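Something for you to look into today, if you have time. What I am after is a single protein written out in full by you. I want to see for myself how the chain folds. Could you add the entry underneath, on a fresh line?
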Amino acid sequence: LLVIAGIGYALFWAITGSSSNTGLGAPGSTHTHQDFKMYINGNSIDFSQSKYQKPHINAHVHLEGGDGDLIHKHATGVTIGFFLKSIGIGLNKDCLTLDTGEKYCNDGDKTLKFYVNGKSNNEWENYDLRDGDKLLVSYGNEADDEINQQLSSVTDKAKLV
């Protein structure tokens, strides 16, 4: 009985609780939305796939309804790094690691870039998601006009919900 109670307690906190050492609020402590796109070597990643969608994701942040462009943030303290980790992706200033294990690291002319609301951002995985943000993660050797096209592809759905 103690083992079952311990497992139940651990599951309850894993699903619904907050952790004081992570800075995350409890699910439901906020409800905001962010527009999001990711490109690897000029190709957009399709986050509408079921493996990236709720209910496979945690209660703090997720994608839902088959929409891969709109992040739903349900807890304070959620960063882009936390969101990406929740869908199996690693991000830092040097490398992006996809859920498939493929790794894309700064290497010569191919670099990792992170934009928030059209501006380059160096907070990387620590950027705290804000309501209405337009986020772009891009890896490759794109020229400025290609980056501008990628930035333009980030939707405005967060303003509508």
